[in-house]
Amino acid sequence: MIDRGKIELCAENIVNSINIKKKGECVFVKGGIYSQDLLEEIALNVYRKGGIPHISSTSDRYTETFLLDKKISRETLEITPKHYLKLIENIDAYIVIEPYEDPSILNEVSREKLLARAKSLAPIRDVLYGAKEEYAPGKKWCYAGWPSQKAAAFYNISYDLLEKFIVGGISVPQKELHQITLKLSKNFKNARKVHVTDDLGTNFWVSIEDRVNILDDGLLSDEQVAIGDLGGNLPAGEVFFPPHEKQGEGKIFCPLTKDRFSNKLIRNIELIFKNGRLLIDKVTADENLDELIATFKQGEIIDKEKNLAELRTYNVAELGIGCNPEITKAIGYILTDEKINGSVHVAFGGNKMMGGTSVSQIHWDFVTTPQANITVEYKDGTKKLIMEKGKLINNA
After folding, report:
1. Is-contact 341 369, C-beta < 8 A?
2. Domain boundaries, the chain
3. Domain 4-170 top-level CATH class
């Protein structure tokens, strides 16, 4: 059981991350019943800030049952819940705590039902992230992890390590994270391109010229709100950019990730992209490659059905550099993996919510090992190695 003081500290940091500015802001708080103590402490902190919270929590059994029950049809699951949609339209901020105590509950659910569920929620995501002009810029939001014994078993690590990464990662003082991210970000002033390599085959470049440089320190700044970047994940601890979506090429090696639909673990992935676009037919993996490809294809189906001006399911969407001091290795959980000190991640899919130009139901980050080498090319033509084997070089 997590110490009460830790729960209170995490709840305070989570509420700080949505930047409540005025009395009466409506905040929707959602999660699994295993995290009920945290959900209630979050709601209390919303009240203390002058906001008005509403809590919704469900069990793993409920989620697993409605997705597996043969009496509940795929057609039913495709229907967008209008009452939920109206609630989302009328809130100011949205806080989600990791809903599954046991991430494996989705492993046996059919792809058809998972796709149906994703389709039903697509209009809600449009409202949350301002994907359509009538909803722009979207709602303030935070998605935070929370540990459980069942999740630790799923990731094949000790519970203590999972709690260290999640609770410890969320508990890092936000002022400390701000100083860490600020120091890292100074290396990218007037940058044109970023080139990343490691000893396991990663070798790519992307263009960030004149793109916004976002400090993920767990606080939602007024500057972020101004560019439409209205939220983030906790634990925090990265510097990230929406790179030019049609530029960049190379290969990324990601040792471990979790499928966005089925939650199945995927190992030793190699991804190749060219002209900013992932070459999905050239992706390889040692385990569950079919899950990765199916998820991108299903995201493509949803994006095509939305009649977007341009399909961006496979375009490069984010470049991020992890720097949370409490997080030291990949476990397959993206909320902690992308914050690993000395790692780099690239996402494909949507990035409008962070100041980019792409709209997609997919936003999937792939994280390197914490041994990255980063070279920055600047507008004046000079180049500088800023990170070597995961260690920031003190030359900023």
Report:
1. no
2. 4-170, 174-392
3. alpha beta
